[in-house]
Amino acid sequence: MGVVATDLGVVATDLGVVTTDLGVIATDLGVVATDLGEVASVFLMQSRFATIKTMNLKALMTLAIIAEPAPLRSNKDGVVLVGNTRITLDTIAAVFKQGATAEEIVYRYPSLNLADVYATIAFYLNHQAEVEAYLQQRQ
Protein backbone atom coordinates (compact mmCIF):
# COMPACT_ATOMS: atom_id res chain seq x y z
CA MET A 1 0.00 0.00 0.00
CA GLY A 2 1.56 3.24 -1.07
CA VAL A 3 0.92 5.87 1.61
CA VAL A 4 1.78 9.51 0.90
CA ALA A 5 1.85 12.21 3.60
CA THR A 6 0.80 15.69 2.52
CA ASP A 7 0.21 19.04 4.19
CA LEU A 8 -3.48 18.24 4.54
CA GLY A 9 -3.22 14.80 6.07
CA VAL A 10 -2.53 11.30 4.84
CA VAL A 11 -3.52 9.70 1.54
CA ALA A 12 -3.65 5.93 1.19
CA THR A 13 -3.34 5.73 -2.58
CA ASP A 14 -4.43 2.12 -3.09
CA LEU A 15 -7.73 2.63 -1.24
CA GLY A 16 -8.42 6.24 -2.07
CA VAL A 17 -8.68 7.15 1.60
CA VAL A 18 -8.03 10.70 2.68
CA THR A 19 -8.09 12.11 6.19
CA THR A 20 -7.60 15.75 6.92
CA ASP A 21 -6.51 17.16 10.24
CA LEU A 22 -6.68 13.70 11.85
CA GLY A 23 -4.19 10.86 12.06
CA VAL A 24 -6.72 8.05 11.71
CA ILE A 25 -7.16 5.79 8.68
CA ALA A 26 -9.40 2.74 8.67
CA THR A 27 -7.93 1.28 5.51
CA ASP A 28 -10.10 -1.78 5.15
CA LEU A 29 -13.35 0.24 5.40
CA GLY A 30 -12.40 3.11 3.16
CA VAL A 31 -13.05 5.77 5.76
CA VAL A 32 -12.63 9.51 5.49
CA ALA A 33 -12.48 11.13 8.93
CA THR A 34 -12.43 14.87 9.52
CA ASP A 35 -12.18 17.19 12.52
CA LEU A 36 -10.41 15.81 15.58
CA GLY A 37 -12.74 16.68 18.43
CA GLU A 38 -14.78 14.83 21.01
CA VAL A 39 -16.83 13.40 18.19
CA ALA A 40 -15.60 12.84 14.64
CA SER A 41 -17.86 12.54 11.63
CA VAL A 42 -16.89 9.42 9.81
CA PHE A 43 -17.99 8.80 6.24
CA LEU A 44 -18.07 5.20 5.07
CA MET A 45 -17.73 5.00 1.30
CA GLN A 46 -19.13 1.84 -0.18
CA SER A 47 -20.34 1.35 -3.75
CA ARG A 48 -20.48 5.10 -4.44
CA PHE A 49 -22.89 5.65 -1.57
CA ALA A 50 -21.85 7.43 1.62
CA THR A 51 -23.36 6.46 4.94
CA ILE A 52 -22.75 8.93 7.73
CA LYS A 53 -22.11 7.63 11.20
CA THR A 54 -20.98 9.47 14.27
CA MET A 55 -18.66 7.84 16.72
CA ASN A 56 -17.15 8.95 19.97
CA LEU A 57 -13.34 8.97 19.74
CA LYS A 58 -13.08 8.41 23.47
CA ALA A 59 -14.54 4.93 22.93
CA LEU A 60 -11.41 4.11 20.92
CA MET A 61 -9.13 4.69 23.93
CA THR A 62 -7.35 1.69 25.35
CA LEU A 63 -8.64 0.05 28.51
CA ALA A 64 -6.60 0.83 31.61
CA ILE A 65 -5.86 -2.39 33.49
CA ILE A 66 -5.47 -1.71 37.18
CA ALA A 67 -4.78 -4.33 39.83
CA GLU A 68 -7.12 -3.93 42.76
CA PRO A 69 -6.39 -5.24 46.25
CA ALA A 70 -8.33 -8.25 47.49
CA PRO A 71 -11.47 -7.22 49.40
CA LEU A 72 -10.19 -8.84 52.58
CA ARG A 73 -9.61 -7.34 56.02
CA SER A 74 -8.73 -8.72 59.42
CA ASN A 75 -10.83 -7.92 62.46
CA LYS A 76 -9.38 -7.33 65.95
CA ASP A 77 -9.27 -11.10 66.56
CA GLY A 78 -7.28 -11.75 63.39
CA VAL A 79 -10.21 -13.29 61.51
CA VAL A 80 -10.17 -12.45 57.80
CA LEU A 81 -13.48 -10.97 56.61
CA VAL A 82 -14.72 -10.41 53.05
CA GLY A 83 -15.61 -6.89 51.93
CA ASN A 84 -17.61 -4.83 54.37
CA THR A 85 -19.37 -7.90 55.76
CA ARG A 86 -18.93 -10.29 58.65
CA ILE A 87 -18.60 -13.24 56.24
CA THR A 88 -15.23 -14.92 56.79
CA LEU A 89 -12.65 -16.08 54.30
CA ASP A 90 -13.14 -19.50 55.94
CA THR A 91 -16.77 -19.55 54.79
CA ILE A 92 -16.02 -18.52 51.20
CA ALA A 93 -13.19 -21.05 50.91
CA ALA A 94 -15.32 -23.86 52.36
CA VAL A 95 -18.33 -23.35 50.08
CA PHE A 96 -16.09 -22.79 47.05
CA LYS A 97 -14.29 -26.08 47.76
CA GLN A 98 -17.72 -27.75 47.97
CA GLY A 99 -18.31 -26.63 44.37
CA ALA A 100 -20.39 -23.49 44.82
CA THR A 101 -20.03 -20.81 42.14
CA ALA A 102 -19.55 -17.15 42.98
CA GLU A 103 -23.19 -16.51 42.07
CA GLU A 104 -24.36 -19.30 44.39
CA ILE A 105 -22.23 -17.90 47.21
CA VAL A 106 -23.81 -14.45 46.79
CA TYR A 107 -27.24 -16.10 46.75
CA ARG A 108 -26.45 -17.87 50.04
CA TYR A 109 -24.88 -14.76 51.60
CA PRO A 110 -26.70 -11.73 50.18
CA SER A 111 -24.59 -9.23 52.16
CA LEU A 112 -21.71 -10.06 49.78
CA ASN A 113 -21.35 -8.51 46.37
CA LEU A 114 -20.42 -10.60 43.35
CA ALA A 115 -17.21 -8.75 42.52
CA ASP A 116 -15.89 -9.25 46.06
CA VAL A 117 -16.67 -12.98 45.91
CA TYR A 118 -14.87 -13.37 42.57
CA ALA A 119 -11.89 -11.41 43.93
CA THR A 120 -11.83 -13.55 47.09
CA ILE A 121 -11.92 -16.76 45.04
CA ALA A 122 -9.09 -15.40 42.87
CA PHE A 123 -7.11 -14.57 46.01
CA TYR A 124 -7.73 -18.08 47.35
CA LEU A 125 -6.63 -19.70 44.08
CA ASN A 126 -3.53 -17.50 43.77
CA HIS A 127 -2.50 -18.00 47.41
CA GLN A 128 -3.92 -21.44 48.10
CA ALA A 129 -1.06 -22.71 50.26
CA GLU A 130 -1.09 -19.60 52.47
CA VAL A 131 -4.88 -19.61 52.80
CA GLU A 132 -4.94 -23.31 53.65
CA ALA A 133 -2.27 -22.72 56.33
CA TYR A 134 -4.39 -19.86 57.73
CA LEU A 135 -7.48 -22.09 57.72
CA GLN A 136 -5.61 -24.90 59.52
CA GLN A 137 -4.41 -22.42 62.14
CA ARG A 138 -8.00 -21.20 62.65
CA GLN A 139 -9.29 -24.71 63.46
Largest sheet: 3 strands, antiparallel
- Share of residues in strands: 25-35%
The end-to-end distance, rounded to whole angstroms, is 69 Å
Structural class of the helix and strand makeup? alpha+beta
Q: Provide the gyration radius in Å.
A: 27 Å
Q: What is the H-and-E element order?
A: EEEEEEEEHHHH
Q: Which regions have little confidence, pLDDT < 50, spanning 5+ residues?
A: 1-54
Strand order of the largest sheet: 1-2-3
Q: How many helical stretches?
A: 4
Instruction: Give the CA-based shape.
Output: globular
Work out the number of β strands: 8
Helix content: 25-40%
How would you sum up this structure, described in words?
With 139 residues, the protein is an alpha+beta fold. It has four helices and eight strands, in the order ββββββββαααα. A hairpin with a 3-residue loop joins strand 1 and strand 2 (9-12). The longest helix has 13 residues, at 114-126. The radius of gyration is 27 Å and the shape is globular. The N and C termini lie far apart (69 Å).
